[in-house]
Structure formats: C-alpha cells, structure tokens
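Page 37, top half.
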Amino acid sequence: MLGLGKGKSLLGLDIGSHAVKMVQLKPTKKGFALVHFGIAPLSPESIIDGAIMNAPAVVDVIRDMLQTHKIKTREAAIAVSGHSVIIKKINLPVMTAEELEESIQWEAEQYIPFDINDVNIDVQILRPESAIQGQMEVLLVAAKKEMISDYTAVVGEAGLQAVLVDVASFAVQNQFEVNYEAPKGETVVLINLGASVININILNDGITTFTRDINMGGNLFTEEVQKQLNISYDEAEALKLGGQYGKESDAVIPQEVEKVIGEVSQNVASEIQRSLDFYSTTTADNSISKIYLSGGTSKIPALYKLVEKKLGVPVEVMNPFRNIEVDAKKFDPGYLQEMAPLMAVATGLALRRVGDK
C-alpha cells in the first residue's frame, strides 16, 4: 500500500462523509503536475461513520464531477478508514515476502478482532531486521470486505473502476513524502482531520510506527453550533465555514460561535493528545519534532493553536500541492490554496499507479 509505482496514473478519489474530493496528476521531468482538481459537497447523512447510507446521492455527486471536469481516466484509487479498518505493527520471524504472503492469513487471526473471512488483508515489511533478534517489523492492514464492496460499487456505478484501495493515513503519507522532507532520524506526526474521522500516522525516520483512527471530526463543531444556538444544520455549517473560509480576513464570528468552537477544539485536541501520550508510553521514542495537519477541520485556527500549545510541538497545516506543478492560468491560486488542506488524501491517491501493491 506504500510506495509509488511506475504504471499509468490513477484518478485520486477521496469519498468523505462531508464531500467528495478528486485529484488527477501527471508525471513530469521534475515530478508531478496538476491536471484536474475538484471538490463537491455530499448531502448530510449520505455517509455516516464511514458507512454509505445513500449510495445514489454519492453516485450522482461523482458522476457530476466527472462530467464537470471532463475526466477521461476511468481507473481510480480510493481510500478507507475508521472502525472497519485495523492497522497493526507486529513482529514476525524473519521470512521472505513470498513466505509472508502464504502465512499472513493465520498470523493475522491473532490480531484482527473481526472474522478473518470478512476482511481483506494486506501486509508490508517495514524493517527486514527489527531490534529483536531474528524478527522483522511488519505492518498488517485489514479492512472489512463489506465496506470495500460498498465503496467500489458506488465508484463503479458512477462510471469508474476502483483498481486500488488504500488507507487514508497512508494516502496522506504518500503526498507528504512528495511535498515535505522529514528530517532523518526524527519523528513527525501526520494528522488528517476529516468531517467524521481523525487519522493519525506517526512516522519515525520515514517509517510508520503508530496509527490510530479516532471517530470524531469537523461534524462535531457543526452539530454543537447547531445545538447551542438552536439553528439548522445548514446555518450552523455556514457559520462554522464563515469563520474558517470567510473571504474577508477580518470576518467576524458571533461570540457564541467562537465559544462553541473553542470548547469543541479543546475536546478534539485532548483526544489527539491522549493518542500521542499512548504512543509515548508504548515506545522508547517520545521526541516528536513536528505535527502536520490536513483535512478541512485543520483550517480552524483555534484547533491547531490548541494542539500546538497542548503538545508543545510546532504544528503546520499541510499543502499537498507544495511540490506539485500548478498552471496558474488553469487553476485559481487563491482558491487552490484555500482548499489545499482538504485535498491531502485525494492527492496521495492520485500519486498511486496502476499495478501498485
């Protein structure tokens, strides 16, 4: 699931609970260039906790995007995350990749809390020789077949073929590796703050050492504003977005909204801190040098300032187009910059190639 192949490029399609994001790239002599970029909102409750509740609505949005952007590519990469996906780093006796493929089914049964017949399993050797003599570090990923089937079905109905299914955390990591240079030997944290799921991926020396999906996100802010101000979901969403995306740099948020956003930010930042504290207690490595945020919720200033303050670590909001060639005549630089944090997963998926494992 990691690493970039050399086959034909894929359309990166990030189907989130709040919106569908799409990115298409093409290889250049210097790296990659942006070909297509789009984002379209989904009606509330089309997807709840990662489960597709209104498939026709999702299909319609994807179809409209393909038509609007005149997409000719029909092969796509999609991502999954949440409680239907299990990621574990395990130690196994040193063996070849072929031997690992053969033995992983029964090895995985010890670590997967689902029926082994209900999941698709993938595996990646992280360190061929771990600190433990005769052992190797392996990343084990299991995703429920039913969820993958639901996502590939809506993509298929929209006229695409999902030829690759990645994990959201690793898609963010793919674009990070292209756009940023993580210092050798240091630990950085990639946090993707979606509408309903927060994906955490901790990298030490460029290798995943810990991942966790937290089932909370930007919807919490909208729901709390809606509840405390007794307004509709759409009005609450507009107020929340007005604070984040207001075109006037001095846009004023009503004081009550600021208060609610501050309270929810405290809860989200505390949950992130708990995950990082857990990581610190289970590993000898507890020196995080930087935190990189992505996802729509990362644009809430109160949140990333709180995360920085609570953890005492520098925080930066990622730009997945930082090292991607962008034609300013074709794409509005201001709008691209504004939407960039939302596009981390889609960009990571667009970096994948036909034939990647």
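Page 37, bottom half:
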Amino acid sequence: MDVAEIESFYQRPEGMFIADLLYQDLGLLQTIWTQMAESGGAPFDKIAVGFPFALLESHHLPAVLMPAETGALAWSGADGIAVASIDSAAWPLATEMCDRMIILHALEHVRDQQGFLDEAWRCLRGSGELILIVPHRRGFWARSDKTPFGQGHPFSRRQIRRQLDQAGFEVAELKPSLFISAFGLSLPNGVRHRINRLGRYIWPMFGGVLIIRAIKKLYSPHQQANPALRHRVRQFIVRQPAGAISPKNRHE
C-alpha cells in the first residue's frame, strides 16, 4: 500500500473515525504530540516519520520523513512543505538532532526494520522520546488488507519490545488501541464508539494496533553505520490532490 492509498483511507469517514480513536488513545500517554495543540507549541525539536497527518494538526506539523518504500506525499504545513522521501536505513538527519519523534505507517513497511530503528536511535538526543504506532499481530486489523493496518509486517508485543531493546530503546508504556474490527466500521457512529469502549475491557489482547512510548538509552553497544540506499527502492512523490481534507481542526 503506497502513500496515496493511505491518504485516501484517512479521507473517508471510516478513516477519520479511526484517526479520532488513535488520537484519543495517544492522549492517554500524555505526550507532547497531544499537549502542543493546547499549549500553542513546544520548545522541543520534533520529527515525524511515515504518515502523521491523520493525528497531527497541520499548523503543528513538524518536518516529516517518509520511507521510499511507501513514497512521499507533498503536504503543506505552517511554514510550507517539509516532507522528505528517505532511504529507511540512512536518514538525512544529523546525529542527536531532535528530542521527540513519532512514527506511524512506516516501520511495518520498510525492508530493514532494525536499520530503521537504529536510525531513529541515532537521530534522537539522550533520553529522547519515541512514539511508535504499529499493527498488532493478534489484533483484528492485521487481517484486513483493505486498510493501512493490514499491510506490511505486524508485531506482537514481545516482538516489538525485543526490536526496540536491540535498537537501544527502553519501552516506558505499551498500550493496545482500536478494539473494533474493520467489519464494524459500517455501523452507526455511536454504536462503533460503544463497541470500541467495550472491547477495551473484554478483549484488550485483540487491539488492532500497539501504541508504544519508548525512551532512548544513553548507551547502545550494537549501533552500526548504515550504508545509504542499501536496497533498490522506487522513489516517487504524490502531490496532495485538489480538495483533499486537511487534518486541521479534526480533533477540536
């Protein structure tokens, strides 16, 4: 699934509903990504990787890195377009460049997942915070190939903890989200919200995605330099189509 298909999903009513659920659960982590909308900004240097447009308001959008495996989407922020298509194992960023990083619709699509996480570790400053959202292997959504969460490589809790530990991160919080199946998106909005709340208590092990807050460890002995363009990937850019719905004010 390329970036144009991911964007198309979030422009549909069911995609907006999913974005709202993810935003609410992200807020439970008390991260800067949900607080900055209330505080009018934050002094931290921030980077987003993958497709963050569904969760972040356009006037608070940081620089965005999009893996070449999915392609890049030109998206206007407060200071113009700040999107780069990158080799997933060699990011065009200086070492220890940012304090906060959010990754959505990226890790499950890249070929070299460990190299990708190693680059995230390199670009974060000491004790920097990483927010990572990935499909859950045991969840309902990993089996729905018509959605972005049914594409790529899903993770179990044990797998994502192990990969983050190998990359030099300590998992501070791990929460499942999306407790309604993709087949329930055709139900009325109120019913969907009730099913999702019910699922949080009855079948929490089947949440469709995992939301992880991880902290960079100061010492990671396995770090290795990643050669640029390790794999042949298709480089392309999809411009935002006319009339596309902006995530601005979606969560107000």
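Margin note: Residues 172 and 214 are 5 Å apart (CA to CA).
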